[in-house]
Amino acid sequence: MKEMNLARFDLNLLVVFEVLMQERHVGRAGDRLHLTQPAVSHALRRLRGLVNDPLFVKHARGIRPTPRAECLASSLAPVLASLRGSLSRGDEFTPAAATRSVVIGASDYIELVLIPSVMARLRRQAPSLDLGVKAITRASVTAELRRREIDLAIGPLSASPDAVQATPLFTERFVLVARKGHPVLKGSLTAKRFAAYPHLLVSPQGDSSGVVDQALRELGLRRRTALTVAHFLCAPWIIADTDLVTALPERIARRLLGAAACGMRELPLKIPSYTVGLVQSKDSLGDPLLSWLTTVIREVAADG
Questions:
Q1: Cys bridge to 169: 42, 70, 131, 301, which one at CB 3.0-4.6 A?
Q2: Domains in the chain with CATH codes
Q3: CB within 8 Å of 116: residues ≥ 6 apart
Q4: Is the Cβ–Cβ distance between 168 and 194 less than 8 Å?
Q5: Distance, CA of 102 to CA of 145 (rounded, Å)
Q6: What whole-number distance in Å separates Cα of residue 49 and Cα of residue 3?
Q7: Which of 225, 227, 250 is nearest to 238 (CA)?
Q8: CA 55 and chain centroid, separation
Q9: Is 62 helix (H, G, I), strand (E, B) or coil?
Q10: What is the pLDDT of residues 112-164, one digit of tens each?
Q11: Over the stretch 57-78, which tens digit does the pLDDT of each residue have?
């Protein structure tokens, strides 16, 4: 294999390639790079000649990377992140002097149990740093990180793709929540008795069933879901005014029970706990501000 002469290689082409991988669109890449579309296309032609591969092919909504481009991107991401980190170390990062906006992808659950304490820390330590929270879905999070529509994402950790770095924050479990005085809160509780009540399901993704339904099916039981909502924050007030029961993450239940006339108890089902974590794209790991913010979020989560 012929070795490439790096002395004659234009490193700006790698920046164009990185943004093309993130945007999957020549026009949007040009906008981010402050280049015309012909200039981006010219850079792409030069890259294609250097690596002897098309790198991207056209499709209905823009361009799609070839397997060679995917392989090249996974190799380049940590190199570019390391290079950015090395070049930025001349000016030591100072939280108090940070003047940026950071967007976190998360649900209203995270907005309630983490963001208040995180924001309190930021107001003390980085008062000029602005924070935004954007609703995301499991299907969109990787693409939004890649396109830099969000800088970080916080939520339940599942199998993470190779393109992101995952940091566990805390373990969460479900509890039963019902209005004060509800019969389900009194006496012994079996799974069959629990399933007999009408239920409320919180489903941010719009699913028609959840972990409670799966646990009941394993026992040969079914429940009636009388209401499905997309947000955790409305659930306790609906529960307080009805005979519905629900299963909520314990942290959100403890936060809200003082405001809504509800009580909670253990579920009569074996539902596994789950890990809530933070993810970011690997090509942003050299960003000192995001590294500091990740540490802040991890410390807040550890404080409970």
A1: 301
A2: 6-88 (1.10.10.10), 95-168+275-302 (3.40.190.10), 174-272 (3.40.190.10)
A3: none
A4: no
A5: 12
A6: 14
A7: 227
A8: 28
A9: strand
A10: 999 999 999 999 999 999 999 999 887 788 888 877 789 999 998 865 566 67
A11: 998 888 988 989 888 887 777 6
